[in-house]
Structure formats: structure tokens, C-alpha cells
Amino acid sequence: MGMSVGSGSGGDDSDSYKPLAEINVTPFVDVMLVLLIIFMVAAPLMVQGVPLELPKTSASKIGAQKKPMVVSLAPDGKLYIRDEEVTRETLVSRLEQIKAQEGDSVVYVRADRKIPYGDVMELLGRVGDSGYARVSLLSQPAPSGASANN
């Protein structure tokens, strides 16, 4: 890209000179690509923060790990809350007691694959009746390459 020069007619040069009014963006793109590479390299270094030597304390951790709330339905039809066996009649009241002591958390429901679907749905309803809003079903992951019908 340059300037255009008129034909050499021998007349006045000021009439024949017409500058080319285009912007050459190639240097601009080159500079932007170099800046992009610099920022890509420098950004992870800025995340590190300032190296500090923090003081030691004897305070306990704030979020102590609680035992997960697992309700299990065994193949023989028995119900368990964690490792404690409960009856169908006392399931809701026991879950309400635990919720009052430990607070609201996720309830994980496990059931043997031979248990009928209706029984599992009844168990889910009872867990919901106890006041727990977040219920999750647990399953065993299938080995790779195996069908889900095993």
C-alpha cells in the first residue's frame, strides 16, 4: 500500500498528487498478537498472590466433616439410617430428630436393585415428609464396556 502517483503529463504536481486514504492494519494486528501472548504468559503469574508466612493457631476448623445422611433399603426390606436399623413407622420421626440435631443436609437414598420401584418411591416420599428438601439417589457405576442390564 502506498500512494498513487499520477501520469507524468508534465503539468502542476500539486493537481496530480492524490494520497491513498487506507489504514494499514497489519502492524496493528502484529502488536495485538504480541500483547495477547504476553498477557497469556503473565496472567497465571499474577494469580499466585503475595508469598506470606501465616501464623499458626490452635483453633479448630470451621466446617467439621459430618457423617453423610444415608437411608438404605436392604434386600430383605429392612430400613437403615446410616448404620442404625429403623422401622417404617419410626423412619420419619427419626429423620426429623436427626435434622433438628444436625441441620438440613442432603439425604442419600440407597436401595438394592431387587427392591420393587414402588417401594423405593414410597421411601423417597417418606424422606420428603420428614422435611429434607434435597434427596439424592445413589447407584453403583457400571464397569466400562458392560451393559446396564446386569
State the helical fraction: 25-40%
What is the chain-wise order of helices and strands? HHEEEHEHE
The SS-based structural class is: alpha/beta
Strands of the biggest beta sheet: in what spatial order? 3-2-1-4-5
Weakly predicted, low-confidence segments: none
Task: Give the helix tally.
Answer: 4
Strands, helices and their partners?
Layout (H helix, E strand, L loop, with lengths): L12 H4 L9 H22 L21 E5 L5 E3 L2 E3 L4 H12 L4 E5 L5 H13 L5 E3 L13
Parallel strand pairs: 1-4, 4-5
Antiparallel strand pairs: 1-2, 2-3
Describe this structure in words.
There is one protein chain. The chain has 150 residues and is of the alpha/beta class. The protein has a domain at 69-137: Nucleotidyltransferase, domain 5 (2-Layer Sandwich), CATH 3.30.420. It is 34% helix and 13% strand. A five-stranded mixed sheet has the order 3-2-1-4-5, covered by helices on one side.
Describe the structure concisely:
With 150 residues, the protein is an alpha/beta fold.
List its salient traits.
alpha/beta, elongated, 150 residues, Nucleotidyltransferase, domain 5, 5-stranded mixed sheet, 13% strand
